[in-house]
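Hi U.,

Before I forget, here's the chain from the pilot set. I'm dumping it here mostly so it's searchable later in email.
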Amino acid sequence: MPVTSYADDLGSAVHYALKTTHAIAVCPFHLDLTIRIGDDAAESHAFARARKLVKSDGTTWEREALGKEFRRQLSQAADRYCPRCTLLGDPEL
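Structure:
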């Protein structure tokens, strides 16, 4: 999917930036669960990448809106490990 398809929706743009910079990952066993990796540099890079995404109308996202959406998505993500896998006693964790 081209980058421009993510740029028009704020939530998708932020998710795209976080995922492509490896600031977040999706649990391979629980596809609905996002995991925050905990890499500050990757999160900063994701914010910079999202700031540069250009919407189809030629504009970019406002800094305040991006910051709010980043905080929302990162606060909803699990920290470093999938809690469902941890509960199941995955021996690799």
